[in-house]
Design a protein that fits this description.
Elements lengths: L1 H4 E7 L3 H12 L4 E6 L4 E9 L2 E8 L21 E8 L3 H10 L7 E7 L5 E7 L12 E4 L15 E9 L2 H10 L6 E3 L4 E8 L2 E5 L1
Parallel strand pairs: 1-4, 5-8, 9-10
Antiparallel strand pairs: 1-5, 2-3, 3-4, 6-7, 7-8, 9-11, 11-12
């Protein structure tokens, strides 16, 4: 089932505070402060979408110097918040990347990441770099939290992911890549690459794009 594969959705913002305010206004839940991504020029906040999935609200960190590389998820070019990417759960990243290569799909390099929570706890993970954008962001990157407790366990609660779909001008090609990866994200024809999450919240069912 697709929703079981969703580790987190990435809500990228040109201004993190404005993005947090927008999510709280839409859903009626205030995201939990996350932490900084040292060297990447970003910081985040989190909102649980279920026991093992969450919404990551991410934007520039004004307390960090400008990063050497562009910020992930196209943040530097954004003029408004949007669902820019998603991460799928994976325990064996090397095998996942190798199997994808055999299908002609080049996932991002397997890397290690970490950040500290506001309380000082270290969170660490491994992932296929989302710098490799496939299908205009509709094809996920993959993540493994290892022994780190899943972030959804400590994120603000009150929302639930109930449906997830996408649109793309070349929907058939994107569906083909997703099929090869064993993912059943529904992709319909549409004017632009768009991720659409339906979230049950204190303010009812809300579509995030």
């Amino acid at each position: 089932m697709l929703l079981r594969s969703v580790d987190h959705l990435v809500y990228a913002c040109p201004d993190l505070q404005a993005g947090l305010d927008r999510i709280e206004s839409l859903l009626g839940v205030r995201p939990t402060p996350g932490g900084r991504h040292p060297g990447a020029g970003t910081r985040n906040a989190l909102l649980s979408l279920g026991p093992s999935s969450y919404l990551e609200i991410i934007g520039p960190d004004p307390e960090q110097p400008e990063p050497a590389e562009p910020r992930l998820f196209g943040i530097d070019a954004l003029t408004s918040p949007r669902l820019a990417a998603w991460a799928a759960t994976e325990e064996d990243l090397e095998k996942r990347a190798a199997d994808a290569r055999k299908q002609g799909i080049r996932l991002g390099q397997v890397k290690a990441g970490s950040r500290r929570s506001p309380e000082g706890a270290l969170l660490s993970w491994r992932y296929t770099s989302p710098a490799a954008v496939i299908g205009d962001g509709l094809v996920p990157f993959f993540i493994d939290w290892g022994t780190t407790p899943h972030p959804a366990a400590h994120a603000a609660r009150g929302a639930q992911l109930v449906a997830f779909r996408a649109e793309h001008p070349d929907a058939a090609s994107v569906r083909d890549v997703l099929r090869k990866l064993g993912l059943d994200l529904p992709v319909a024809a549409g004017p632009s690459a768009t991720l659409i999450a339906e979230v049950a919240s204190p303010k009812g069912r809300v579509e995030l794009k």
